[in-house]
Structure formats: structure tokens, C-alpha cells
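MODEL INPUT / OUTPUT PAIR
PAIR INDEX: 1
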Amino acid sequence: MSEEFEPKILAYCCQWCSYAAADLAGSMRLQYPPNVRIIRVPCTGRVDMLYLLRAIEDGADGVFLSGCLLDDCHYVNGNYKALKRVEKVKGMLEAMGIEPGRVEMYFNSSAMGPQFAQTCIDFTQRIRELGPLYPQPQKAAVGA
């Protein structure tokens, strides 16, 4: 009996655009995978690289940041800072032998509820295809 892998995904969303897009998706009753856990942050530019790495270390199969559209950040350039950090984390993961695609940066305005829901669906599918970051131990057969 094999169960389909359901990844644990953490999403850091800026409160001004992406969190509002997630809220809009909910208001529109759009479905996206329930395994995406959203953390609201003032700006994705405030998300340190250590938060991304710690999420992976603590068992998340994938992590993404979702911020304001480029050149439309509430804090001027926070999303550019976040993008640079995500690229650095991807390089670090690759150096450790972990697929860099487990970390990503997306951009959604507050009016992009459907796009936010699709982002969650697409990222979840990507992580499903990559498989679990930490394979689960096999259960011993009873009577073996």
C-alpha cells in the first residue's frame, strides 16, 4: 500500500500584496493545497536566509516567498533583497546536494488571488515530483 507523498510547504507572504492575494483566493473560494502553510511577514525583504534554511532543516519539503510585484514593493526594494537571498539559498542547497528548486520566490499583487492559488498548486506539484526531502523510514512488517 503506497500513499501519495504530500509535501510540507512553508510560504512567507508579504502582508501588503501576497497575503492579501491569499485572502482574495479564499474569498473567491479558490482551492489550493492545504499543505501550504502561510506565514505573514511585513515584507519578504525581512525574511532572512536562516529562516529559509531552518525551515528545510526542520522538515519542510519546500519553502517559497511571495512578495509584491517587482518595482511595486511597499518598502521600495524589499522584494529585490528577498530575491537575492533566495538565489543565495538555492546555491547553498545545491552545494549541500539538495535540489535548489525546493526554494523559490514568486511575485503577486493583492488583486492576484487566482494567480496566488495557482502558484501554490504549481509549487506543490514541483515538490511532489522532487519527492520528500527526508525519506520516511520504512515501517517493519508485522511478524517479520
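PAIR INDEX: 2
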Amino acid sequence: MTLEITRIQPFPDERTVIVTGAGAERGIGRKVARKLVADGWSVVAADIDGPAVESFAADLAAESGAKVVGVGVDISDQAAVDAAFERIDAEMPPIAALVNLAGIPSPHSILEITSEIWDKVMDVNGKGTLLMIQAAAKRMIDGGFGGRIVNTASITALDGGGTFSKTGYAAAKAAVQGLTRGAARELGQYGITANVILPGPIDTDIMGGTLTDDRKEGMSANIPLQRVGQPEEVAGLIAFLVSEDSSFVSGTSINVDGGKHMH
């Protein structure tokens, strides 16, 4: 089905967004889920840590009164992704948006990284993003009202490495940028937009644990705003990108780095 793309396509009142990587207590995913619930979305919080994400979803549903479910899934495994979407189809309103936040870092240098670690980093960050897009996009197309896809790369893809993650992670996140552009080009005919965000240093635990004040100071040295970002600041951008207001924004890479990279 190809939509009439000469006009803005509204979403149904009841619609679902899937947020991967929502299991970590100090991660961006949980802030995104909370923000989107407040914006009226039904939310699927997904993560490889099933018990953690199910507990979070139950708490958020009780607090907000919204429809929220937690789904444990290894996004790099096709069978696991298929099973997760079967459950989503059975329990949730139509899917209108996908936010791919799940990923794993790699602190290994180019001379140290093994083929096994390389494959794992590529599988989760790259293939996992692809599998989630494929499953969600098919349902968006069937729904007939378009949709939104937001993927997560990193400014590491621009730098070739950072304060914690190095070559493997940089390569995987650069691949996510290319994947996003391909999705935007190929899925646009169905009214589906695809964009990618590139966070800079954000105050989460993905960079080798909780950031100390000394580490924050070091990471802020080349940032015009002179601080690291907060997960809520990333969530605000994602909320816009999955909204109807972003209907003509697609194929775009947006840095969330306090002005560290300007273009």
C-alpha cells in the first residue's frame, strides 16, 4: 500500500511506539518511554534484560494509567524479534513509531578487537536495528497511516572513537547512519520517516559506568555548552521525531552533543 503522500498523514488516537534499550535504570530508554507516555503514546519497552524491563513497564503503567508493556528480546536474534512482535500484535494498538536505542559499546582498540567481539558489536548495533526496522515497518505499511523510525548512532561515528568506545563501536554506529538513510529512501513512499540521532557524552552508564565529576569535566572540555548531556534532553528530541509535527523530516542525522560537532 502506497499512501497519498501529498498531505500530512495523521496517526490514530491509539497508537504504539516501541522503545528498545529501556531496561537500564540510568539509560536514555526509560526517559524516552516516560516522555512518550506523557505525550499520549502506548509504549512497548523492550530490552534484552526481560525482568528489568517488565518491572519498569509495570511501574510506568501503574503510575501513568497508560498502556505500557515490557518485552524481553534479543534484537539481534530473528526468532526472538518475531516472537516479540507476535506479542505486540496481540496486546497493543497499531504500531506507529519505533525508537532503536538498544546497543552495546566496545572499548577495544583496532589492534585488540577480536572477530568475535566485532561480530557481537555489529550484530546488536547494526543487525538488531535492521531486524527491528523490518518488523515494525511491515506493520506500519499494513496500518496505512505511515510511521516514524528513530535510530541511534553516536558522535563516535564521526570521531572514529571516543573516551570509552573505540573502532568497532564507531564502525557499527556509522553503519546505522547508512541504514537510516536507506530506510528513509525506501520507506518514504509509505509515509514512513527515518532519522538518526548522534548523542555525544550523555550522563548514563554506557561509557563504562557512572560518570564521576572528573570524567564529566574531561568530556566537557571541547563542548561549547561546557557540560555533558542528560537523558531527558535526548528524550525531548526523540519525542519530536516520532510526533506528527516531524512529518517532513526524514533521512536526517541530528547531533545531540552540546555543539561539539557543527555542520
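PAIR 2 NOTE: The longest helix spans residues 115-143.
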